[in-house]
């Protein structure tokens, strides 16, 4: 059978490090509250000249280097973001040009924090259907540009960054061979008012700012994620005990902990970067994957569950044999 297989991963963070204490000088918050309620201790924020595309280009080049490939080997680029450089053209085409590529299909996917899972699922289908051979899947964000810096309930939660993965095509004989084994994606527009921006091109003609009812989002996140993880395990014929690593979307340590508990998974098999990066939306899963790949936790042959939940709501999970 034809599978989409993992070839390499890379990430990039902006240069400006912002600690909880730095934020406590701007809004009525404290390092203690942020750590206790979210697990976040710091985040990186894009400075002047740093954009979603500039971070994505760095992450994608790092992923190509990790895979031992060049942009010449790539014939598809899918980029997930909620903070594109401009309304159009897509950030994917800007990144394609920035990497020195041309001609192959490049487009953006909009699923907010679940964007990387949606991009991965799209690329996986395109590879399996013969529409691409080697693809770049990127999650990149500069959420700091659309955060209300006067709203302490949201501004402390987010950070900027980018992560990228190279997927290739491989004929695999054994069921348990490498590649993406199963993916599930979901959406439910019923909950659009719990996490949204209060503006956009065709409504206000502005970009809008991020608005969130955090407590409600939290509740839905744990329920939806636990269910989609069970569904992906069932579809792939694997059990929670077989998972080597869960690489979750990094929104809140308490969500990671509650989801792991529901599945009976110990936290020492969950990759946690929310403390260092905060919530980087579509970038968080590949950023966390890259962190655990580079430090040697994730290894070839490992069974890795990727999962995310975000505005829409959208949510999804994917099981990968590295
Ligand atoms: O990435 C997409 C998915 N997003 C998420 O998954 C986010 C999900 N939600 C969460 O992570 C949590 O709900 C939050 C971290 C956003 C909030 O934590 P919480 O435990 O749900 O707190 P809360 O919103 O219920 O607020 C508790 C208290 C409130 O004060 P009162 O009303 O109890 O007096 C808030 O005003 O904490 C207050 N508060 C703060 N205090 C200090 C809210 N933000 C802050 C702050 N510093 N930054």
Describe the structure.
It is a single chain. The chain has helices spanning 20-24, 31-38, 52-67, 91-98, 115-128, 152-155, 214-236, 253-263, 274-277, 284-294; strands spanning 2-12, 16-19, 42-45, 76-80, 105-109, 135-141, 161-171, 179-187, 195-197, 210-212, 245-248, 303-310, 314-321. The protein is α/β, with parallel strands linked by helices. It has two domains: 2-171, Thiolase/Chalcone synthase (Peroxisomal Thiolase, Chain A, domain 1), CATH 3.40.47.10; 179-321, Thiolase/Chalcone synthase (Peroxisomal Thiolase, Chain A, domain 1), CATH 3.40.47.10. The strands form four sheets. Strands 1-7-6-4-5 form a five-stranded mixed β-sheet, with helices on both faces. β12 (303-310) and β13 (314-321) form a beta hairpin. The longest helix is centred in the last third of the chain and has 23 residues, at 214-236. It is globular. Oxa(dethia)-CoA binds at residues 29, 33, 37-38, 113, 152-153, 156-157, 214-215, 217-218, 221, 251-252, 255, 279, 309-310. Oxa(dethia)-CoA is lined by residues 29, 33, 37-38, 113, 152-153, 156-157, 214-215, 217-218, 221, 251-252, 255, 279, 309-310.
